[in-house]
Design a protein that fits this description.
The chain is of the alpha+beta class and 262 residues long. It has helices at residues 2-23, 73-78, 122-132, 163-175, 201-213, 244-248; strands at 113-119, 136-145, 153-157, 182-183, 193-198, 219-222, 227-235, 252-256. It starts with a helix and ends in a 6-residue tail after the last strand.
């Protein structure tokens, strides 16, 4: 029963709403009179042709008659300006001066080396070295064999009075730790003690110095015309010295490879 009553109620409610929609009238538009001086708006049908405006209609433009209160001058003066403040142009910093170009280093003069000679013996070559002075650097004395010469340098003790005396000297040489010796048995140098024969003077002089350091009065002989001596060195600052050969007393001046002095 309750269900049927509810269904009947809902049906009656729907019928009532439908009757209300059918019987309600159109909306009532109030008749509002526009104020004087204001043009009346009229709805124009888009399909209807445009009609010329009535000559009696007012064509005066709409103006707002509401008075505007003037702002106090002090308020205008106090208001911040909306314009962007002018900024003073910033002067560009001066560019640093360009560093002065360093002068290119002067290239060093190429090294030049010479040989002065020939000198008959080492003493003459040493005298030439003293005369050259500071004109030569990295100097040295060099012995050079004479082409075709067959003579040798000999180091020997002078001949003894007897062979027995020569043997006594030999025993002293052995006791000093020296070797390479023999006693000459005949000829103009009989009973002399030969202590070495050398191709160049340098080797002979080293042997002679060792014997004299041990207390023996050895002598150097031979070698006449077998070799000559040369003074070698590098020219100071690589500059030629025209008077160098004359000052040293050399007969010749030759160019020399400086690599030979190293």
């Amino acid at each position: 029963m309750l269900t049927r009553a509810l269904i009947v109620f809902l049906v009656l409610l729907n019928v009532s709403v439908a009757l209300w929609w059918m019987l309600r009238g159109g909306p009532v538009v109030p008749d509002v009179q526009p104020p004087s001086g204001v043009a009346e708006l009229q709805l124009v049908d888009a399909a209807a042709p445009a009609t010329a405006p009535s000559p009696t209609a007012s064509t005066a433009p709409l103006t707002d008659t509401t008075p505007i209160a003037a702002e106090p001058a002090a308020a205008v003066a106090a208001s911040p300006s909306t314009e962007a403040p002018a900024t003073a142009p910033v002067a560009a910093a001066p560019a640093p001066p360009a560093p002065a170009a360093e002068p290119a280093p002067t290239p060093a003069a190429p090294e030049r080396c010479v040989a002065l000679g020939p000198f008959a013996d080492q003493a003459a070559a040493q005298g030439a070295l003293a005369k050259a002075g500071a004109a030569l650097t990295r100097t040295r004395l060099r012995e050079q064999s004479t082409p075709g010469a067959t003579s040798r340098y000999r180091v020997m003790m002078p001949p003894a009075e007897t062979r027995e005396a020569a043997q006594v000297t030999v025993q002293r040489i052995v006791a000093a730790g020296l070797s390479d010796y023999y006693v000459i048995g005949q000829g103009p140098d009989a009973n002399a003690i030969a202590l070495g024969q050398y191709r160049n003077r340098e080797g002979a002089e080293r042997r002679l110095a060792a014997l004299r350091a041990a207390g023996f009065q050895a002598q150097l002989s031979g070698g006449e015309g077998a070799s000559t001596w040369w003074l070698q060195g590098a020219l100071a600052d690589g500059k030629a010295d025209p008077g160098l050969r004359q000052r040293s007393g050399a007969a010749q001046q030759r160019s020399l490879d400086c690599a030979g002095l190293r």
